[in-house]
Amino acid sequence: MVKYIERKEKNVKNENVGKRLFITIIISGLAFLLSYIINFALTPFITNNIGAEGYGFVSLAKTFASYTMIAALAINSYSSRFITIEYHQKNYEKANNFLSTTLVSNFLLAFLTLLFAIFFINRITFFLKINLDIVSDVKYLFFLMFVNFGITIIGSSFSSSAYIANRLDLTGLFKLIGYILEAGALLFLYFKFKPKLYYISLALCIQNIFIFLTNLFITKKFTPKLKIMNISFSWNAAKLLVFNGIWNSLNSLGNTLNTGLDLIMSNLFLTDTAMGELAIAKTINTMFIGLFQLIAQPFQPLFLKSFADNNMDDLLNRFKLSMVCSGFLSSLAFAGFVALGRTYYQLWVPNQNSTLLWKLTLVGCFSGIFEGLVYPLYYIYTLKIKNKIPCIITMIGGIINVIFMYILLKFTNLGIYSIVLTTAVVMTVISLITNPIYMCYCLKIRWNYFYGVIGRSVLSCFIMTLIFILLSKIINPKNWIMLIISATLMTLVGGVIHFLLVCNTKEKSFFLYKIKFKKKL
């Protein structure tokens, strides 16, 4: 009788966890959709009113601000892990030490970043090719983007509370509201005043101030043992965070060498127009990375809980389930864009070279097939504190990428394709070969444990691509309505294909239950 009650309680608990996970993904998906709609509307508006090069500088400003995240990762990449584990184990004093140290460090980093931004922006025309007509606009754009970075990293100091309470559904909801505020600010600014590039970074500041405040609310509401106003600094906590996080910073530097220098290279070696075209194509690839994050993040509190409970079977099952979900999106993205991408660009930015944009996007999406599959598994390195080897691999890959990118740009006629091809090859090797094997080593399981899911997902992607091409030829969409209908049909067909080919029995039961739960809602 006791065993029956315990089993019943466990089933109820797992059911509640599944519901929370499902709700989190839905809310985060809505937030992501709104973010996409904002970019969808902004891109043609900016290219038509300011030019493709103007949109290129928007993307470049975001990229430059992301460079400063390399330093922030040294402190922040492990803060949630340590705070969450100490809080779950009721070591509240240690948890507060980590929180306070993270907050003080982030304030200092934000201040130093602002000083660097002032120096860089005053000399921006020395570093970049900028049309004289938009120099002042670009300067304001970059300055506000760096201010936004400061707001973001200071607010991220309090992000661990959502992990502790497993309330990422709330962070998704607040992010959705934040995007609504951003959209409202953009509508007001662009329709009330003369179009300027810096409105985008100003709206981002408004959004992230709101997110900052909601992080404070979640911390006070769900983790009362964390004392926000107890400001202190622990050198021991800082050393522990930096010692482990420095490898994430170096890994981020490697990723920057792989994917973060393309806009600068196109600006310096090609033209600002080429940079703008690449920025438009990268919008889609960035959107797909956002989708992978959308799937991976709601699983992370579950990974942390299983790891803290030392429940290896549960942890591995959750890793595989997250791969199935993320792999579906990466396969759907590639297959869908093969079939509909050219039409999408013709309708979205009719004044641009749609064929060029489509081809550039496809190259990026190809490496995304494998990157999407393993994306949730990157959290293994955080759980096991094993970042040295993947960091070295990423750095080596980044250096190789930059060298070959330079060689192809300098000595061939490939032009803008040189930039995306080298990145795609390097990222495919890292995502398909080096990471899955080393992840298994970190978990002390057989080296090919994850390749079953990877192989089935690649097969699913191949079949999706063939069927989607056939469907696109049959439907032949020429307007937005038919394109949306085609994409919806392909999503449903792709979901069935992925469900049948990739999911094991447990995963099929999980998704069937979620479908029933959704109907009840």
UniProtKB/TrEMBL annotation:
Any one GO CC term of the record: plasma membrane
Top-rank lineage group of the source organism: Bacteria
Major location (coarse): membrane
Subcellular localization(s) per the UniProt record: Cell membrane
Parts of the chain that traverse the membrane: 21-42, 54-78, 98-121, 141-165, 172-191, 197-218, 321-344, 356-377, 389-409, 415-438, 450-474, 480-503
Its membrane topology: Multi-pass membrane protein
Protein name in the entry: Polysaccharide biosynthesis protein C-terminal domain-containing protein
Classification via InterPro entries: Poly_Biosynth_Transport
Organism encoding this protein: Dubosiella newyorkensis
